[in-house]
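User: Okay, second chain of the day. Same drill as before: sequence in, structure tokens out.
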Amino acid sequence: MAKTAWIFSYKLRKNVSEETFIACTQKLHDEVISKAKGFISWEHYRQDSTWTDFVLWETEEDAENATTVGQGKDVTQAFYACIQMNTCRALISQLVKKYE
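Assistant: Same drill. Structure tokens below.
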């Protein structure tokens, strides 16, 4: 099975500071995402006001299963409350080849 990535791009809500968002992300990572089966890493990138996240998983099945691990949790709701959801774009993509 190939490594798989969640790739998200989005903008933060106007009233959310970068510090608040990073704190919410860290909490979601620590309490939920990093404990999910197959989790490898989560990286934030930003260009101007657009954020892009790369969350890597061991397999496509792990990535698919992890899409529901945070449902109904306060920490997940706090994370999504930081994001302008109408700007969110998401992909789940399998690794084809890595160049180093």
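Helices lie at 18-31, 60-66, 74-80.

User: Thanks, on to the next one.
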